[in-house]
Amino acid sequence: MAKVRGIIRIKGKIGDNVYYEMNGKNIVRKTYKGRSHMAKTAESHQKFRESGHLMKASNALSAAVYRMGKSTGIHLNSKAYNILNRKVKRRLHMDDINPTQLHYGILRRTMEGTRLDRVKTAFPISIRYINDYIHLSTGGNLEAPMLVNIFIGTLVCPIWKKDKYITQIDMQEVEVIQLRILPGESSGTFKIPLDLQNNQAIVATVNNKYCCVV
């Protein structure tokens, strides 16, 4: 980038040079026609392309879970999507990932426990998916009934086709398991059998106030 000195004021493009004004100064910048083509084809830009593809996939997988949480009617934290997406993106860039076979099965532990709600207090129960069971524990005696909704969303996961991902950001189907736990039933851990598929994700809500990814 260079600055233009002199009486003549030029704005626009001449050949490969672009002239414009910025902060009261005249600037000239040279364009590089081959850069876009290189980014798409050159071997030296391979990691850049892979990162871009994985970003599209992580955006879709994260958005689908966040939108399912939003569909519960609970006011979500606007920053929660970015937090979730950063976790997913980091996981997808690890060496053990096959980029042509992306699904929630490889992301479940990464997303687990991510809070989506705006509430500042601790999540009132422990809820995890382990070995084909949902494990739920209140961690103590309840003073009032507790309503737990478990939302199971099914999504067409990113499909690698012709060197790019085909993605969707809305769950195809959402099933709901509703539990009402009474004070006298609060001791111990509840186990709910659930044969979860790799294209399924779980979001749980408590008392229509708390919301997290399971």
Give short descriptive properties of this protein:
alpha+beta, 214 residues
Element layout with pairings:
Layout: E1 2-3, E2 12-14, E3 17-22, E4 25-30, H1 35-41, H2 46-70, H3 80-92, H4 108-111, E5 126-130, E6 133-137, E7 146-154, E8 159-161, E9 164-166, E10 173-181, E11 189-193, E12 200-206, E13 210-213
Antiparallel strand pairs: 1-4, 2-3, 3-4, 5-6, 6-11, 7-10, 7-12, 8-9, 12-13
Helix pairs in contact: 2-3
Descriptive overview:
By secondary structure, the chain is α+β, with helices and mostly antiparallel strands. It has four helices and 13 strands. It has helices spanning 35-41, 46-70, 80-92, 108-111; strands at 2-3, 12-14, 17-22, 25-30, 126-130, 133-137, 146-154, 159-161, 164-166, 173-181, 189-193, 200-206, 210-213. The strands form four sheets. The protein has a four-stranded antiparallel β-sheet with strand order 1-4-3-2, with no helix packed on it. Helix 2 (46-70) crosses helix 3 (80-92). The longest helix has 25 residues, at 46-70.
Helix content: 10-25%
Shape: elongated
The description of the largest β-sheet is: 4 strands, antiparallel
The Rg value, from CA coordinates, equals: 25 Å
According to DSSP, the number of beta strands is: 13
Bin the strand percentage: 25-35%
Topology as H/E string? Answer: EEEEHHHHEEEEEEEEE
Poorly predicted runs of 5 or more residues: none
Number of helices: 4
Termini distance?
50 Å
Helix-strand makeup class: alpha+beta
Spatial strand sequence of the major β-sheet: 1-4-3-2
Arithmetic mean of pLDDT: 85
